[in-house]
Amino acid sequence: MEKWFSLWSAGQEKTAEDMAAIRNAGFDGVEIWAEHLTAEKDMELAKEAGLKIGLHLPFHDLNLASPFQEVEDLIFKVNEQWFKKLKTYGGGHAVIHGGMAWASEGHAEAKKLVIDRLTRTRKMAEELGSTLLFENQIPDKLNYTHIFPSTVDEWLEILEETGTAACLDTGHLAVLGAPLEETISRLGKLLASVHYSDNDAKGDLHQLPGDGKTGINTESLLNVLQKHHYDGPIVFEINPYTYSLEDIIRHPSAQFSY
Known about the structure:
Blueprint: E1 2-6, H1 16-24, E2 29-33, H2 39-48, E3 52-56, H3 69-88, E4 93-96, H4 107-127, E5 131-135, H5 152-162, E6 165-169, H6 170-176, H7 180-187, E7 191-196, H8 218-227, E8 233-236, H9 245-249
Helix pairs in contact: 3-4
């Protein structure tokens, strides 16, 4: 297993000193957020610091479940650009969100679009040297719309139909109320990355482990992952509005190595 750091957690502006601090704290890689205006510069800084590079693809206004052809065209245009940049900087994986139906009544039609677009995006990523990871999400509890995926069952179904690997977000799973070890067991070899944070099991607060109520501490998470032969990255994805970079990399939950 490897210890990674989400650059969302470092805020909009990152420096060479920040990257060095992350590397010196024992982190193996960083997951760069394409939403940040500095994303390409961050790739350069990460490479110079000797950190492995992953990418969180942009998701604002790029809804995989959109009924509009114009949005579909933009999704593929933007993601292709990012896959090419990721390849240039020697990156390995890219995480994607599944989008949402305009209304829950349109779930079935929107699901077909998600499966088609995710399959095509996965193939594009592979052609450009990246592995695409599909992340679990938090459903709309009022059921006004349908967020993909809204259950572990739906997540597994879409993963299998599209041939896409999985990024497990422990905070999202806690809010969903699904059991961690059972989910990891069901994912099996599909699991390629873990986003790690804590919360109150009601909202996606992105707290440091131990500050919330999920009970998923680092030791228990590592034990479960090791039991199921997982050897990929554990990405600390922590709220930058609540914690500083130093808070995160020096926290006891981040003091492990494999």
